């Protein structure tokens, strides 16, 4: 890294204020940029072609960060700034920040949004391979954990309703551990219609719900092209989403226990499919 000569110490510096603003979704949306915290996420972003425009390194971590990032290849247009402790702490929401924060461009060609219209054949063109569907997942940590599991178990694309948590939320990024740089997503405005469009291509969609006639996961007849549909953390799937699916599936658990966390349920369903058909 070749740092600029001046150390940024003012908490009112325009660079610091911009980074602070990017902690809010409305500014991330407006600028098409987001923050990466730590060496691991920076490494994953660069390895998968993300565009990093600014690197902020805490002054007392400079030597350590230079060593940790010495083999990373940044764009020649990337700026490197040393930041004083007080200014750095204004940006970072973490109690024990690692000492590096990057500003990166959003991955708009990788993470798309579509409007479902009658006869829309998006499923065949944009959703190839193994899919996972999510409805109204509101918790960023849950979304990130599911993305991490999806990447681990060979999912090729995650299709989610428009009201799911934001991909670039710091909690999503932290829980996903780099999965957003590997796993394409498609955000749709009408999930039941998307389910119907997928079924028209010959896929089967299984709603994870304790619905009437729900089948036990380990007894379900699966294929590699089947899709699981995971619902909201508190309310589960909507009736419309369940009705649009081919059927329902449940994971057997001990009596007198609470239902599984959405991320845990998604991981178990994906593991079952990977166990039978592999992760490729």
Provide structural commentary:
This protein is of the alpha/beta class. It folds into 2 domains: about 15-105, 60s Ribosomal Protein L30, Chain: A (2-Layer Sandwich), CATH 3.30.1330; about 110-275, 3-Layer(aba) Sandwich (Alpha/beta knot). The chain has helices spanning about 15-20, 25-30, 40-45, 60-70, 85-90, 120-125, 140-150, 170-175, 190-200, 240-245, 260-275; strands at about 35, 50-60, 80-85, 100-105, 110-115, 130-135, 155-160, 185-190, 205-210, 215, 225-230, 245-250. The strands form 2 sheets. Strands 5-8-7-6-11-9-12-10 form an 8-stranded parallel sheet, sandwiched between helices. Strands 1-4-2-3 form a 4-stranded mixed sheet. The longest helix has 16 residues, at about 260-275. It is elongated and about 65 Å long. The mean pLDDT is about 90.
Short description:
Helix content is 34%, strand content 19%.
What is the general shape? Answer: elongated
Level-2 CATH architecture of the largest domain = 3-Layer(aba) Sandwich
Q: Uncertain runs with pLDDT below 50, 5 residues or more?
A: none
Rg on CA atoms, Å:
21 Å
Estimated share of beta-strand residues: 15-25%
**What is the spatial order of strands in the main beta sheet?**
5-8-7-6-11-9-12-10
CATH topology-level name of the largest domain: Alpha/beta knot
CATH superfamily of the largest domain: SPOUT methyltransferase, trefoil knot domain
- Major β-sheet annotation: 8 strands, parallel
The average pLDDT value, as a whole number, equals 91
Question: Which CATH class of the largest domain applies here?
Answer: Alpha Beta
Question: Helical residue percent?
Answer: 25-40%
How many domain units?
2
Number of helices: 11
Q: Could you give the distance between the termini?
A: 37 Å
Succession of helices and strands: HHEHEHEHEEHEHEHEHEEEHEH
Q: Which secondary-structure class do the elements indicate?
A: alpha/beta
Total number of strands: 12
